[in-house]
Structures are given as C-alpha cells and as structure tokens.
Amino acid sequence: MAQKKLALRPMLRLPGEAAQPHPLSPQAGPELRIPEPTYTTGAWIPGGFPGTAEGALAQLKAADEIGLRGGDPAVYDRAYADIALSGAPVVDRTGLHTLLKTFRMRAGIAPGESKPGLTVTYDVTHGQIKGTTDQGRYAVVCVLGILTFDYKGQSRSMGVGDCQAMRWTGDTWRISTGNQAAMASNAWPGSTESVQAGYRSLGGAPR
Fold first, then answer.
1. What is the pLDDT along the chain (207 residues), one digit of tens a residue?
2. The pTM is what?
3. What 3 state SS string does the chain have?
4. Which of 23, 95, 100, 107 is most deeply buried (CB count within 10 A of its CB)?
C-alpha cells in the first residue's frame, strides 16, 4: 500500500552531534511557506489550516510547539491526542514522548511534576513534506526545531525533528490511523546536515 510505503520510508540517519549547535549551511534552498491558523481564540492548539500538505505541516508545528512547552511528556501526550484520530499510533512510541520521558527520568522529575526554575521551549523553524497519497488527503510531514532546556539560567539546546502521518478529515488535519511515520532526522536547524535530510526553513504563506 502506498500509504504504508510512504510512512515507513526511512529518513536520513545522522550522528548525534548533528543535533548540536554548529554553523549554518549557505545552501539552505528555497523557503517552504506554510499557512497561518485561522482560529486561535479559545483553542489550546491553533487550528483551521487548509487541506494542503502545507496545512498538515502547519498543524503539526502548532501541536508540537504547544506539546513540548515545559518539557512534560504528559502535556505532549495530551497535545498528540488532541490532533490524533481514534486508532492512531500510540503516543508512547513517538520520538518526542520518549525524548521527554528520558529527560525527566535523568533529571529525577516525575511526569506532571513542576520544577521551579525550569523552562523548556520548542521553536519550529524548518520542515519538509515527505510525500502525499490518496489525492493529497494523506500526507507525511516533518518539522525541525530547537528544543531548549533552561534551568536557573543554564541552557542547553538541540535540534529535534518529528515526522507524522496526517489525514485530512474534510475540515482539519489529524494524525492518521495506520503505520507510524519513520523517525525524523535530528539536526541543528539550518545546518548542512539538516539540508541533507531535506529540511527547509519555514515562512508564512504569501498574502
């Protein structure tokens, strides 16, 4: 099946140091323009994106930035569920859930527990459209951003990617049922490795 083949196609494997801060590439390629949400008021995760692959990418960006804020896997799990169809792959097997769970475990912080002085942010700056099937109603998209942990003024940042298979329901993009997308390439946004992995810088859609 085309959807399974697309979802499972491996992304470029990169060494761990590729995700660490380092110089940017002068050959970043053209900007990838994505739409702005059409509704934000009263919504935890912004939505209202169009039924295009760029809309799917924008929806994933919005959900991941909210879900990773604070570095709590319980919050990420809620954000994942908020945009997932019933029967979508379980969140426990996603790369972002595993990353946050590992971070909390090593720091001795339980999921849901607050840690005074700790702030965690995720700023998506790059992305890619891996591909589409089913006349554009199924899209595998990937985001890449800077995940920053700051504890009492001491910061650590890394480039973190996320790929998800998305399904257009007729009025919104949701994480699709079926196969979980292959793990994203992790690279420092804008670096040579991120370009090699297919990521492009994101910009707003033309007015």
1. 899 999 999 999 999 999 999 999 988 778 999 999 998 888 899 999 999 999 999 999 999 999 999 999 999 999 999 999 999 999 999 999 999 999 899 888 887 888 888 999 999 999 999 999 999 999 999 999 999 999 888 899 999 999 999 999 999 999 999 999 999 999 999 999 999 999 999 998 654
2. 0.96
3. CHHHHHHHCCCCCCCHHHHCCCCCCCCCCCCEEECCCCECCCCCCCECCCCCHHHHHHHHHHHHHHHCCCCCHHHHHHHHHHHECCCCCCHHHCHHHHHHHHHHHHHCCCCCCCCCCEEEEEEEEEEEEEEEEHHHCEEEEEEEEEEEEEECCEEEEEEEEEEEEEEECCCCEEECCCCCCCCCCCCCCCCHHHHHCCCEEEEECCC
4. 100
Token pair, residue 39, equals 């509704």
In angstroms, the CA 133 to CA 147 distance is 31
